[in-house]
Amino acid sequence: MPWKDIAILAAGFAAGGLNVVVGSGTLITFPVLIGFGYPAVVANVSNTIGLVPGSVAGAVGYREELSGLRRLTRELAMASVAGAAVGAALLLTLPESAFEAIVPVFIGIALVLVVLQPRLSAWVAARRPEGMSSRTPLLLGAVFATGVYGGYFGAAQGIILLGVLGAALRVGLHEVNAVKNVLAGVANLVAGIIFAFAANVDWKVALLIATGSILGGFLGARIARRLPPAALRVVIVAVGLFAIVKLVA
């Protein structure tokens, strides 16, 4: 196997594990693909399809935490599905130049969220009372908007969802993370199905990322929890900045 394929496989593994723990796995795989010279839109759609199996694996790994939240999760998943379909349609409809122009901004915002994630988590935990879960039109709208973003690009979609869900749902952080994995997973799935039929997909890349993300989805949570969070964020920021430089250049 060429070293490039090994690197993409390893990136898929890292992204699959990172998505389960917090999100932002795309900030690993997308810059790697850009670095190897893949066009931005091809890299994005191939990456989205490749990360779908890892998202499913991550959701299965958190099935116990979802046991009391299935009705709520189904309702929110419908909003995420609708948003992802809109986001995927926007990616396929708007010119590729628009994607290439706006993605560096998305990545920059995502990197800021990655850096601020500990403070956001602390803020959410301090303001979220325990008890029954609350679902409101505002929450459904926020999940829909996050789904649009996930269908269009999706870097740090998980971090955005953690903030939205953590502020709105009166449950523990593990349950919030479990719901986040499902919502991000269905957004990737819907966008991936659309891309499979309507976009230019590099199926070899998608398969490599899928293989790595499945392993990462099952095993990554254990590994990532043992890594120093600061070190993990440094890696994410480094590859994200590389992607920005590559795209702008």
Helical content class: over 70%
How many domains in all? Answer: 1
Flag low-confidence runs. Answer: none
User: How many E-type strands?
Assistant: 0
Average predicted confidence as pLDDT:
82
> In angstroms, what is the radius of gyration?
17 Å
Tell me the number of helical segments per DSSP (H or I, 4 or more residues long).
10
Strand content: under 5%
Structural class comes to mainly alpha
Largest β sheet strand count, sense and barrel closure: none
**What is the 3D form?**
globular
Distance between the termini: 30 Å
**What order do the SSEs take from the amino end to the carboxyl end, as H and E?**
HHHHHHHHHH
Description of the structure:
It is globular and about 45 Å long. It has one domain. Helix 1 crosses helix 3 (40-61), helix 2 runs parallel beside helix 10 (229-248) and helix 3 crosses helix 8 (173-198). 49% of the residues are buried. It is 82% helix and 0% strand. It contains ten helices and no strands. It is an all-alpha fold and 249 residues long.
Keywords:
mainly alpha, 10 helices, 82% helix, 249 residues
Brief characterization of the structure:
The protein is mainly alpha-helical and 249 residues long.
How does the SSE layout of this entry go?
Layout (H helix, E strand, L loop, with lengths): L2 H19 L4 H10 L4 H22 L8 H24 L2 H32 L9 H16 L4 H12 L4 H26 L4 H24 L2 H20 L1
